[in-house]
């Protein structure tokens, strides 16, 4: 996805907005377009919508550290460099001063605020473009959801510790006045935006753009996290039944073939705007590597082809999902893929009918047997829900490893405290301390921090 320069000024301003700076820079770059005038017509609107993909490509968002953070905290990645932020995530003991959470908070709310600008300008200028509007609604939902599952108590619908919700474009002064909504309110806004997006987006074979199927797939994920298993089944089933998508015969094809049949939404990188993940996990010495004993070795022992995306040099395990050469940095980030839909439906079915795991096991085995056709799980392997969750977490790790899911799965399935030996309050990242300070009491910190 090519970068659109008209959006650079907005991106810069939003960083200041959500870092909580009291004053915007007094000087302007010669080529800077004032943010209020960034969208003036249908052409600049489309450019702004493309700019949303650019925000997602940030090196501390889907172009890098957001993905690594979830596997570091989730226990399948190791901090093997010298960066303090990664070492803290690796221990699952994340202080409010952690550099990653500070930067990612900016990322997710950049995405939200940029989406809000598009929506407000469309309304103000009476511009009609269903794809741009649907993309903005999807991205606002995604930004809020990524904030909620990191910084909110997303497993507790009765919790007051949701996230700040923003549905209108905000400047520096108004941004710091937004307090936290409840978890239930946070989910409702995310779901409303995705439903609105689905109402205007179209089904499309394009894997690199946001489509109606991508919105359905994200909604399936949201409903799973919310614990609404009926709707998680409904929406994952919609995507599975969509003949545009099918599992690749070989697991690794999704990394070798851009826009393969399995990809639902793939964030495309070009050589000119490279994916930071390549340099962090695939180039010596890696800042982050795959855990050997509990993650790589069991796959390797099974001769699981999903282990072929990792390279053990006897010291560390490199991750080759995004390339292996520092000069080739255009590996795409897989935001949503079809195999996840089977895993979502398997989990939802298991939670809905814990005394009958037959259908859940069938979905799990669709994923399992693509990689290991001679080693399906049988009903004997899952005598109860707890046993099913154990194998589900293992399959989630193998299938979605280093794609940004493991930590959330552990928290969602109630295994984070026991498997990682951490207190319950640490299953939620703290709100960055600089945000707490600037908000002057408007933002309440998560309990325990």
TrEMBL record:
Q: Which residues form the RagB/SusD domain?
A: 304-421
Q: Which Gene3D superfamilies match?
A: 1.25.40.390, 1.25.40.900, 2.20.20.130
Q: List locations, semicolon-separated.
A: Cell outer membrane
Q: Which InterPro entries match?
A: SusD-like_N, SusD_RagB_dom, TPR-like_helical_dom_sf
Protein known as: RagB/SusD family nutrient uptake outer membrane protein
Q: Does the keyword Heme apply?
A: no
Similarity field: Belongs to the SusD family.
**One Pfam entry name:** SusD_RagB
Q: Which organism is it from?
A: Flavobacterium aquariorum
**Which top-rank group of organisms is this from?**
Bacteria
Alphabetically ordered keywords of this record: Cell outer membrane, Membrane, Signal
Q: Where is the SusD-like N-terminal domain?
A: 25-224
Q: What is its main location?
A: membrane
What's a GO cellular component annotated to this UniProt protein? Answer: cell outer membrane
